[in-house]
Write a structure and sequence with these properties.
The complex is a heterodimer of chains A (324) and B (391).
Chain A lengths: L4 H7 L19 H14 L3 E6 L3 H6 L11 E3 L5 H17 L9 E8 L1 H5 L2 H10 L4 E6 L39 H6 L5 E5 L4 H13 L4 E6 L13 H10 L6 E4 L2 E4 L9 H6 L5 H4 L4 H26 L6
Parallel strand pairs in A: 1-2, 1-3, 3-4, 4-6, 5-6
Antiparallel strand pairs in A: 5-7, 7-8
Helix pairs in contact in A: 2-8, 4-6
Chain B lengths: L4 E5 L1 H12 L3 E4 L6 H12 L6 E4 L3 H14 L3 E5 L1 H16 L5 E6 L13 H4 L7 E4 L3 H16 L7 E6 L8 E5 L2 H8 L16 E2 L8 H30 L6 E4 L6 E6 L2 H14 L4 E6 L1 E3 L3 H8 L4 E6 L9 H10 L7 E7 L8 H12 L8 E4 L4
Parallel strand pairs in B: 2-3, 2-4, 4-5, 5-7, 6-7, 11-12, 11-14, 14-15, 15-16
Antiparallel strand pairs in B: 1-8, 6-13, 10-12
The chains are: A alpha/beta (324), B alpha/beta (391).
Chain lengths: 324, 391
Amino acid sequence: MPLTMKKLAEIFTNREIGITQGHRMCPGCAAPMTVKMVLMTAKALGYEPIIGFATGCMEVSSTIFPYTSWSVPYIHNAFENVAATISGVETAYRALKKAGKIPPDKKYAFIAFGGDGGTYDIGLQALSGAIERGHKMLYVLYDNEGYMNTGNQRSGSTPPGADTTTAPVGKVVPGKLQLKKNIVEIVAGHEYVYAATVTPGEPMDFINKIEKALQFDGPAFIASLSPCVRYWRVDDDKAVDITKLAVQTKYWPLYEVDRGVYRVTRKPASFKPVADFIKIQGRFRLLLQRSDAEQILNELQQYVDRRWERLLAFEEATKDKPIR
Amino acid sequence: MASKKVLAITGAEAAAYAMKQIEPDVVAAYPITPQTPIVEYFAKYVADGEVRTEMIPVESEHSAMSAVVGAAAAGARAMTATSAQGLALMHEIVYIAASMRLPIVMGVVNRALSAPINIHCDHSDAMSERDSGWIQLFCEDVQEVYDLTILAVKLAEHEDVRLPVMVNQDGFILSHGVEPVEVLPDEVVKKFVGSYKPIYPLLDTDHPVTYGALDLYDYYFEHKRQQIEAMKNVYRIFPLVAEEFYKISGRRYNYVEPYKMENAEFVIVALGSSNGTIKDVVDELRSEGKKVGLLKIWMFRPFPKAEIQRYLTARKAVVVLDRAASFGAEAPLYEAVKSALYEVAVRPLMGSFVYGLGGRDLKPEHVRYAFERAMALDLVADREEYLGLRE
């Protein structure tokens, strides 16, 4: 029987999820939700999760010595190397299994978590190397579109026009100028990989993709849109709603790329304008005050429309045609 | 004592051969001149099924050290090797490996750091890691590369140590020079290193642990103190491990090797392959009736202060040869030796000579010149001088 939210809730009524309460994440943050859903899915499927974490919000606020929020094995090494670290852990597992030092029936899940800074930017090389080498690991990106741990600096994932402390909206420069890097395409370009987008606002889609990722015989990558309510300047209870809106406005399409085969997993019957996603967030407030705000929003709308069309075209073109 | 088998091999092959006999669970490495042949030899052993080691051909040295940290934390015996820029790229994780108390053994093929880019030997790479919390061993010849690589595993993994070890060999001079090496039988090495008993492995899911927690001002200092104490334990444990190694090999290692130090009045102190050249010059000068000697340093970290003091007190003059500079300060080995001798009852006259940067040869006449300056008592403790430099 496939996993459902109800089933997960039943399973974990009297069972540890792997991360406990008491961490110091901000109220309303979506990252713990992403972590919980990944852990619950893995455990419900009988995996023993081994967690690697890149330096970032979730890392610093879940392991303040002498406390730890983790009741599953956990390692944080540095900012940029969680993929390499987990690839070492996974390789150790294979070596020790071969040497007969690991119980043969144990089903491990090697899961790396990184924020967008540790994934799109400083950690990209290690991530690419680990995927290229084919480690059986799951890399989960929680994407809050900036360096929130250090106080709202721009990252390679920050969308244009967002106000950040290192790419502020000023008198001359209108905030971040560059587009958000398309991390899923970069990962999918490694070809033998399962890559997908998820949001905590679409839990069933999320769970299904985690299941698929864990069962994939090779590296898997999940990108979860993970609003930072504090620096996106939305109310504490809006993280889930805003991820739903991101999907409904084509800002964050839900899809997967399984060895080159694209599949769009949510196709809303109708879409909302991307401006709906932008206008409710304080980080775009200064952008919206500009005299050319309408034009910028139109350009953004055209961009998300074109990206959506391309996704559908990829889906059609790659149907039943895995690269490897 | 094991039966003797002698191979004519390079330092790189000696390191790889020792690694083959140790047969670690995981090796992660990236090629870099002049370390590359170590990775190549080892990759061939893996490809030919001569070891059961899982090899991770990573995309950078940073990931090599990151992966061995992951593997060691998981519960595997993990090794790597590097040189110069590669070691510099690892730097951040080199500290993390030591601070997590992971007994990783790494071959370092010493090479000059850029810029300008230079592929040849000096010790600037190793010296840049001297405060990283790794035990640092230096080899004079290829035999020592082989021996100390094996010895390092047992030292690193001793329960009172649990610290990573760098086994340094001079780039090209040792790594690419062929020498006869007496190797031990596989089973003797296997028995010596034993099977790795990890402490708090990640893969023990029944006893989950958190590695790499955030440690603020309320605990960090205490954890560093523990690390300092672990390093001090090396002074107690290294002789025990060296004694065990002596039993299987007949070769005795120590913090330092005194060479013709009986009644020596004028002594040179050095690290690495130059000690071979210095020994020759000592022999020559001794045959001329000069009271000269050599104090070779095998272990640079932790620094063998007690031995330095014991061997160098009341000598007439001590010259320290450094294959690395410290910009704006005294050369690293000289600084350490001079500092150790501050406390002795009768301080020798001291001189500092920097030599061999970027692979520049150290010739016997350079060593002879240094001794002559010592014998003439023509040394100024505060003046750094250079051997083999055009000025």
